[in-house]
Amino acid sequence: MSMKAIVKSVMSGDTLILRNRSVPQGQPPKERVLHLADLTAPRLGTSSREDEPWAFESREFLRQLAVGKEITFASIHSLPTNDDVPRDLGNADIGGVDLSSELLKNGWAKLKEMKRDPTEADNKKKELENEAKASGKGIWNPHGPKARSVNYTMPTDSQSFVTEWKGKTLDALVEQVRDGTTLRVRLIVPDGEHQMVNIALAGVKSPRASSRQGESSEPFGEEAKFFTESRLLQRPVKVQILSLPHSTATPFQSSANAAAPPPASIFIGTVIHPAGNVAEHLVAAGLARIVDWHAGMLSSSGGMERLRAAEKVAKERRLHLHANSPVSASAGKANGGANPSGQPRTFDATVVRVWSGDQVSVIGKDSHNERRLQLSSTRSPKLSDPRQVFYAQEAREFLRKKLIGKHVKVHVDFVRPREGEFEERECATIRYGGHGANIAEQLIEKGLASIVRHKRDDEDRSPDYDKLMAAEQAAVTDQRGIHSGKEIPPPKQPLNISETSSRAAQFLNGFKRLGKIPAVVDYVAAGSRFKIFLPKDNQTLTLVLAGIRAPRTARNPSEKSEPYGTEAYEFASHRYMQRDIEFEVDNIDKSGGFVGSLYVNKTENVALTLVKEGLATIHSFSAEGLSWARQLYEAEEEAKREKRNIWSEYDEEAVKISEAAAEEESETGALQTKYLDVIVSDIRTKNGFQFSVQVLNTEGIAALEKLMREFSIHHRGSISSPPGFIPKGGDLVSAKFSDGAWYRAKIRRASPIKKEAEVTFIDYGNQDTVSFSNIRPLDAQFRSLPGQAQDARLSFVKLPDTASEYYLEAVDRFRSVCEGRKLVANIDHKEGNQLHLRLIDPSNPAVAEDPLACVNADLVSEGLAAIDRKGCKYISSYPQVLKKLKISVAEAKRDRAGMFEFGDVEEDE
Questions:
Q1: Which residues contact 67 (CB under 8 A, 6 or more apart)?
Q2: Count of CB atoms within 10 A of residue 743's CB?
Q3: Can you tell me the distance from the alpha carbon of 22 to that of 230, in angstroms, rounded to the nearest whole number?
Q4: CA-CA distance, 529 to 523, in Å (whole number)?
Q5: Rounded distance, CA 776 to CA 733, Å?
Q6: Which residue of 251, 323, 347, 351 is 20 to 30 Å from 232, comparing CA positions?
Q7: Membrane among the record's keywords (predicted)?
Q8: Who contacts 783 (Cβ-Cβ below 8 Å, separation ≥6)?
C-alpha cells in the first residue's frame, strides 16, 4: 500500500526521515524513518567515530534530491521502533523517479547481498550498479574521496574561533533544528574542513520546544520549531558568526584577574536562507521575541530595525505570542502630546544644570519651566562606589562640556514612577547640534555610562534603544571607560581655599598678579556669590562680586528671602551654573571669600548683567575703585528706566523729592557725634584753602602700608606703558611724585597736546601736574584698596580771604598745629565726598576740661579764622559749638589778635 509524506531530512544515502503532510496545532508532526530496501550507503560519523568514505557526498546526493519534497513510499517490512518513531524498510519515489535506482545509477549506494531469487527489478538495479562501477561514479571513483576533516564538537578555543570568523560569511548546512531559534549547522570552511557548531539566531528567541519524549513544550514552541525546520533543515544557508553568548556588559570587571572562560556550547550568529533571514520571518509570524541585548551586533547593519518592524506587524495582527498582548502603551508617546502633568513631551530647551552623568535640568524655550530629566535607558557610574567615582565625574564633565548652556531638543519618552527612595522622574532622549546627536548614545559609546536592561515587555525605554546597545557593544569591544577593566582610584577632594580668611590671604597676591583666571562655576550660592572650581589646581573658592549687592535668599525654611532674592538666585543659576568662566580678584572679605569680577564668554561682566536686569544694586564703596564703575551706574540707570525687577515700583520723581528733602536735612541737621583718629596728609592753598586726611582705622592703614611696599617693589623693574597709552580723566594710574616715588593717583584732567595731566594722589590727597612719561596704567592687583585720602575742610569756620595779609599766617598756623600729626576729628557734615571736620589736638590740656575745645575754635580766638555763616548752613544745628565760637571771637577782639589787630573786621551778619 503506497503512502505519501514529506521528506524532513536525510540521515545517509540510504535512509530518510519522513513527516506527515499536515501538522496539528501545537504538536510536533508525526515522523517515521524509511530505510531504502536492498541498499547500503556510507555512514556519517559522530563525535566518537569518523565518517566512512564518501558518506557526506552520498548523503548530499539524496538530500538535494529529496529534502522538503513530497514522497510516495511503500513499506515492505516494519522494523522495531526507536523512541516510538516507526521504522520501515521499503521503496520510495519522488515525482515518479525511484530513489533507489537514482542512487545506484549515480554510484552513491551499493546493493546488499540478496538471499532471495532476483526478480526482474533486482536485475535492473544490478545493471545500474555495474554501469556506475564501470564509469567510476560516486563511491566507485578510483581516486577515492576528497580528504577533509570533520569536527563534530564545538571549537575548544571559542574566542579565537569567533575572532577568526566574526562577520565573515560561511557556507553551511543546517543539520538540526532544536527549537525555532537554535540550530546545529555544518560550516563548510573555505579550506574544505567541516565544523559543526550550535548557533542561536541573533536578535531573537523563540519558545522552547520539547527535546525528548514526555517533555512539554512552551506555548508556540512546536510551531516555532516547525516554522524553522520546514524551511531550513538540511538546506544550504549562509552563516555569520557574531559573538559568544555574553548576555550583559560587565563594567569594572578586571579582565586580568578573570579566569579563562570554558569552551562555549553555542555561538550567536545570523542564518540567511536564499529567501531571507529566518529570524525576521519568525518574528513577523509572532513565533519569536526580540532579544534586546543583541542589538549591539545587529544595529550597524540595520538588522535590529528590521526585527522591530517585523515585531510591530506581528503585534498589530496579534499573531501567536502576541495574541493576548495589551495595546502598546507607547502608541500615544510617539506624538508630541502632553505628559499626564500637562507639560509637552517634545520641546526645545536650554540645559542649565548637569546633576550627574545621566541627569540634567533644562528650561523650556516656550514654557520657561525648569524640568529635571533622566536620560532614557541610561545608567551613569555611581559616586557612592569608590571604583566608579572617577568615571562618574568623567561622565558628568562630558555632559557639562557638551550640553551646559546649549540649546537641545527634548523628547520625554516615559515617566518613571516614584519607587522607594527614587522620586518620580521624566526620562527623555536629548539631542543636540546640527545633526541631532543623541547625547546618551555618545556617553555609552565612550564607556562613561551603561545601558539599562529592561524587562522583555517593558515598553518604557529609549526609542534609540538598539543604537544604545550598539554603542555599548562598541565600548565593550574597544574596552573603553567602565569596560576597560582598569580601577582608577577616586580623585582627591578639591582644596577649599576660602575656608578661612588666613588661608585665602595666602593666595590673594598670586591671583592679583594672574589677572583673569579660567575656571568653572561649581555652584551658585546667591545672586552675587559663587563657588568657583579651578580644575587645573583642584581648588575651590568663594567669589563675591565687587561693586554690587544682590538681594539675599533664605538659607533655611525659617528664614525669609529679601525681595527679588529668589529671582536673582534663579537668574544666576540658570545663566552661570557650571559655565566655563574667567574671574579676577581684587580683595578678600573677613570670611575668606574673594571679592572680584566674573566674566562669561570672555566679555560678559556678570555684575553688569545683574545690575542691568534689576537683580542687584550698586555697592558704592566697593564700586568706587572699579575701572568699569561708570558702566555700572549706567546699567543701574537703565534698569531704573525700564523698571526691571528691584526697580519695578521705582518712582524717579518721588526719589528726587526724597533726596532733596534728605539733602536739605543734611545741610542743616546735626550729625551724631563720631570721633575718628586722623592724620592731615596734605594741605593745599592753590584755589583756596583745602586739606586731606587719612582715617587711621587699623585695617586701612595696614593695608596701605603693605600695598605701598609691594607697589615700590613692582616699580623697581622696568615698567613701561603699553603702546598708544594716553591717560584720560577719571583713570586710575600709577604716577611719579616730586619725591621720585610712585603712588596711586587719579587723573583729574589730561592734555594730550602738552603730554601732561593733573592728578590727585588718592592715598594722600596731594595734587600735582605730571608728564605722561611718568604715568603708567594702574596694575589690577593695586586697584582693590580704596583711596585712603579724604578731602576735608574745617567745620563752622573759614580762613581769611587769600588776598588778606593774614591768610598765609593762618595757613602757617594750621600747618604747625595739624600737618602730619595724629589728631582726633568729629564729622559735623558731609558735602559729597568732602568731610566738614572739627579737629581736636589730644595734646592740648584744655581738651580734657572743655569738650568743645578744638583747633577750629583756637584759630578763631587767634584772629586767624572767622565764623562761616554762609558756607555752613548747618551751624544752627550746633548751638553749643556756635556759642563756643562766639566766645572765641570775643577773645580775639579783646586781645586784638590777628585780623582784629586794627579793630572789628567781622562781616555783617
A1: 7, 8, 9, 10, 233, 234, 235
A2: 21
A3: 12
A4: 9
A5: 6
A6: 323
A7: no
A8: 586, 625, 626, 627, 732
Backbone angles phi, psi at 605, to 5 degrees: -85, 115
Percent of the chain past pLDDT 70, that is, above it, reads 93
In angstroms, the CA 488 to CA 778 distance is 47
* CB neighbours of residue 1 within 10 Å: 4
At what angle are helices 465-477 and 303-317 packed, to 10 degrees? 150
Dihedral Cα 609, 610, 612, 613, nearest 10 deg? 110
Taking alpha carbons only, the member of 146, 122, 142, 117 closest to residue 132 is: 142
Backbone angles phi, psi at 18, to 5 degrees: -110, 155
How far, in Å, CA of 713 to CA of 701, rounded? 18
CA distance 76 to 99: 15
* C-alpha cell read off for 299: 544595529
Q: Which three cell numbers stand for residue 856?
A: 577750629
Q: How far apart are CA 453 and CA 472, in angstroms?
A: 12
| Strand pairing report for 495-496 and 539-545 | parallel
Q: Looking at residue 260, what is its pLDDT?
A: 60
Pull the grid cell for residue 798: 573759614
Strand 182-188 and strand 110-111: pairing? unpaired
- pLDDT digit string (tens) for 135-170? 999 999 999 888 889 999 999 999 999 999 998 999
Residue where the block lists cell 520723581:
653
Residue 338 makes CB contacts below 8 A (sequence gap 6+) with 344, 345
Q: Which three cell numbers stand for residue 756?
A: 601732561
Cα distance between residue 731 and residue 737, in whole Å: 17
Among residues 175, 174, 177, the alpha carbon closest in space to that of 29 is found at 177
Q: In this structure, what DSSP letter does residue 24 have? A: -
SS3 334: coil
Q: What are phi and psi for residue 324, nearest 5 degrees?
A: -110, 15
C-alpha cell at 875: 551751624
Grid coordinates in use for 794?
A: 574745617
CA 906 from centroid of its chain's CA atoms: 80
Q: What is the DSSP letter of 799?
A: P
Q: How far apart are CA 580 and CA 167, in angstroms?
A: 45
Report which of residues 40 and 664 the model is more confident about.
40
Cα 79 from Cα 893, distance rounded (Å): 157
What does DSSP say about strands 70-82 and 85-94: parallel, antiparallel, or unpaired? antiparallel
Rounding to the nearest 10 degrees, give the CA dihedral for residues 165, 166, 170, 174: 110
Q: β-pairing, 594-600 with 539-545?
A: parallel
Which amino acid belongs to residue 432? Answer: Y
CA 61 to chain centre: 64
Q: How does pLDDT run across 464-481, given as a tens digit for each residue? A: 998 998 899 889 888 999
Please say whether the beta carbons of 381 and 374 come within 8 A.
Answer: no
